[in-house]
Design goal:
Elements (H helix, E strand, L loop, with lengths): L5 H14 L7 H4 L1 H12 L1 H4 L22 H10 L15 H15 L26 E11 L3 E6 L5 E5 L3 E5 L20 E3 L3 E3 L4 E6 L3 H4 L2 E9 L4 H6 L3 E12 L2 E9 L15 E6 L4 E6 L19 E6 L20 E4 L3 E8 L4 E7 L5 E6 L23 H5 L13 E3 L5 E6 L12 E5 L5 E7 L2 E9 L4 E7 L5 E6 L4 E9 L1
Antiparallel strand pairs: 1-25, 2-3, 3-4, 5-6, 7-8, 8-9, 9-10, 11-12, 12-13, 13-14, 15-16, 16-17, 17-18, 19-20, 20-21, 21-22, 23-24, 24-25
Helix pairs in contact: 3-6, 5-6
This protein binds heme C.
Heme C (HEC) binds next to helix 4 and helix 5.
C-alpha cells in the first residue's frame, strides 16, 4: 500500500507551487521562460530583433519560416545554424536543454501564448455576426452571463434547462428561459476559502467538478456529481499539517423542487488518499460508456505532482472505470493484481481535463495538460500507461525534458508508453471536448471540438484511424473555455470562464 509522508506532503504543497499543475504556470516566468527570454536577448536579438521582428543581419522569426516552424525543426535550425548565411551553429556552445528552451520560447511567441498570463481578465470576445469556418458558418449566442468566475461543468437536460457547477459554491439550474436558480440545497458542500499563489491562480480543496445526467436519465432521474470531498483532522496528513485535505468522490442523486435528494455514494477512496494538494490537480471529469460503464479522471492528487501516479495501488493519476452503480467490472485491466486499485483503467495521467466515449468507434478519449508543451489528446486503452511523470513530449518548466523515471528509480521502455494521438506544443491548455454528433453541424460529424483555457480558442480536430488528419481553429482569442456539451436537441453549448462573470453560449449554425 502506498504510504503518505505528511512532512513530505507539506513540502510538496510548497513545491507543487513550483512544479505546477495546470499548463502554463507562472513559474515558467521565474524559470524557463525568463531564462530563455534573456538567452534570446543576449545571443539572438542582435540578428533577429528584440521582438523577433528581424534585423539587418538576420531574418524575422515571426510569420513564415524557411526552415520549418515545428518545434523539432526550430531546434534543428538553432543547433545546426546556417553558416553560409551568417547564423552560427549553437550546439557547440549551448546545452541541448538551452536550445530546446529557446525553441520553445520561439514557438510560444509565434503562437502568442504568454506563460505568465492565464487570461482570466482578458475580456470575453463574443464574435459579432457570422463566424465563417471551413465547413459550417455559425453565430455565437449568449445564453446567460454573470455566472461565478470559476464554473466547471454544464449538463443540458431534456427539458432545455442546464445544470451548472460553480466549483467553489454549488449546483445551479439554468432554466430554458436563461433564468438561474439559487444553489440547490442538499448537494455535497463546496468550499470557497481559496488562496492565491503569486500571480492570479486560485488554489483550494473541496470544489465541485463534473455533473452529468445518467444516459437513461429520463427513466431513472439519476444525476452524477463529482467533487473534492474535504475534511479536517481526518488523516495523518491533515492532523500533522493542520490543513484540510480532499480527494475526488463521486455520488449520484436526484433533483426535486430545488433540492438534491436520494444521494448515494458511487465511488470514494480510503481517507489515507486524501491530500493537501489543490483540487486544480483533481482532473474531475466523468463520462458514460457502453454496457453500463462509467469512466472518471483523477489527476495528480497524491503527495506531489509525480508520486503515486505510476503506482497501480493508488487512485492518483488514473482514469477509472466502474459500473454506474459503483461496482467494479470483472474485466477491468488490473483485477488479476491484488495490489492494484481495482477501478484503475489507464494510468500515468497528469491533469486530465476532458473525457469522452466515442460511441462510433467504441473507445474512450481524453485530453490532458502537459507541463510546458505536451498537451495531449489520447485514445485511452485499457491497462495502458500514458507516461506521466516518466515521459512527456513537453518539458518541465525549467526547460529540461521530463524524466522523473530516473529520479523515481522506475525503469521503462519508451515503447511501453502510449503516445498521444495529438500533441499540442506549445500548450494551449486544452480543456474539455466533445465528439460531434449533432444534426445542426452534420459536416463536423465525428470531429473533436476541443476547448482551451490559456489560448482562449476552440479547435476542430479530425482524427481518422487514430491519427490526426486535420486541425482548424474555429474561434481564436475568444475566451477561456472550461466545458463543452451537446444538448438533447443537438445544440452545442460552451461554458466560458472569466473573472468578471462567466457565461454559457450556444453555437448557432447559419448558412
Ligand atoms: C549573426 C546573426 C545571427 C545570430 C546571432 C543568430 N541568428 Fe538565427 N539566423 C540568422 C540568419 C541570417 C538566418 C537565416 C538563414 C537562412 O535562411 O538560410 C537565421 C535563421 C534562424 C532560424 C531559422 C529561420 C527560418 O526561417 O527557418 C532560427 C529558428 C534561428 N535563426 C534562431 C536563432 C536563435 C534562437 C539564435 C540565438 C541563439 C540565433 N538564431 C542567432 C542569423 C543569426
Amino acid at each position: 500500500m502506498y504510504k503518505q509522508n505528511p512532512r513530505r506532503q507539506l513540502l510538496a504543497l510548497v513545491f507543487s507551487v513550483i512544479v505546477s499543475i495546470t499548463s502554463g504556470s507562472l513559474f515558467a516566468q521565474l524559470g524557463g521562460v525568463g531564462q530563455s527570454m534573456q538567452a534570446f536577448q543576449a545571443n539572438c536579438a542582435v540578428c533577429h530583433g528584440e521582438n523577433m521582428e528581424g534585423a539587418a543581419l538576420g531574418v524575422p522569426l515571426l510569420g513564415e519560416l524557411r526552415h520549418g516552424d515545428s518545434f523539432d525543426e526550430i531546434v534543428a535550425s538553432i543547433s545546426k545554424g546556417f553558416e553560409t548565411a551568417g547564423m552560427p551553429p549553437w550546439r557547440d556552445t549551448m546545452s541541448v536543454a538551452d536550445i530546446r528552451n529557446l525553441a520553445l520560447f520561439i514557438t510560444e511567441t509565434r503562437a502568442n501564448v504568454n506563460y505568465s498570463d492565464f487570461n482570466y481578465d482578458t475580456p470575453i470576445e463574443i464574435p459579432q455576426g457570422l463566424v465563417e469556418s471551413e465547413l459550417h458558418n455559425f453565430r455565437v449566442e449568449t445564453v446567460i452571463a454573470d455566472l461565478d468566475a470559476q464554473p466547471f461543468s454544464i449538463a443540458p437536460l431534456p427539458d432545455g434547462s442546464i445544470l451548472l457547477t460553480e466549483k467553489k459554491f454549488g449546483v445551479r439550474v439554468i432554466g430554458p428561459d436563461g433564468e438561474k436558480s439559487e444553489y440547490l440545497e442538499g448537494t455535497p458542500q463546496a468550499y470557497s476559502d481559496t488562496y492565491k499563489i503569486a500571480v492570479d491562480q486560485e488554489w483550494g480543496v473541496g470544489w465541485l467538478f463534473d455533473i452529468k445526467p445518467h444516459p437513461n436519465y429520463e427513466e431513472n432521474g439519476w444525476i452524477y456529481l463529482y467533487f473534492g470531498d474535504r475534511c479536517s483532522d481526518c488523516n495523518e496528513v491533515s492532523r500533522q499539517s493542520g490543513q484540510p485535505v480532499s480527494m475526488n468522490k463521486l455520488v449520484r442523486g436526484r433533483i426535486e423542487d430545488g433540492q438534491w435528494v436520494d444521494q448515494e455514494t458511487v465511488w470514494e477512496t480510503d481517507l489515507q488518499y486524501y491530500s493537501v494538494i489543490t483540487d486544480v490537480a483533481a482532473g474531475g471529469r466523468i463520462t458514460f460508456g457502453e454496457a453500463g460503464h462509467l469512466y472518471f479522471s483523477v489527476g495528480m492528487k497524491g503527495p506531489s505532482n509525480y508520486e503515486g501516479i505510476q503506482d497501480l495501488s493508488t487512485p492518483w493519476g488514473k482514469i477509472h472505470r466502474i459500473y454506474d452503480d459503483g461496482s467494479i467490472p470483472e474485466d477491468n485491466p488490473f483485477t488479476d493484481r491484488e495490489d492494484a486499485y481495482q477501478s484503475a483503467y489507464t494510468y500515468g495521467h497528469r491533469s486530465p481535463q476532458g473525457l469522452e466515449f466515442n460511441y462510433t468507434t467504441g473507445d474512450l478519449w481524453g485530453t490532458e495538460h502537459g507541463p510546458r508543451g505536451g498537451d495531449e489528446v489520447n485514445r485511452l486503452q485499457a491497462g495502458r500507461n500514458y507516461g506521466w511523470p516518466l515521459y512527456s513530449l513537453g518539458m518541465d518548466y525549467d526547460g529540461t525534458p521530463v524524466e522523473y523515471g530516473r529520479e523515481l528509480g522506475i525503469a521503462f521502455e519508451l515503447s511501453d508508453i502510449e503516445q498521444p494521438v495529438v500533441d499540442l506544443t506549445p500548450s494551449p491548455a486544452v480543456s474539455s471536448f466533445i465528439i460531434v454528433d449533432s444534426d445542426q453541424f452534420p459536416e463536423w460529424e465525428g470531429n473533436y471540438l476541443v476547448g482551451s483555457l490559456k489560448a482562449r480558442s476552440l479547435f476542430r480536430i479530425v482524427i481518422e484511424d487514430n491519427r490526426l488528419v486535420h486541425r482548424e481553429t474555429l474561434l481564436e482569442g475568444f475566451s477561456r473555455i472550461r466545458d463543452i456539451e451537446k444538448a438533447y436537441n443537438d445544440d452545442i453549448y460552451l461554458l466560458l470562464e472569466h473573472n468578471a462573470g462567466s457565461q454559457i453560449v450556444r453555437l448557432v449554425p447559419e448558412a
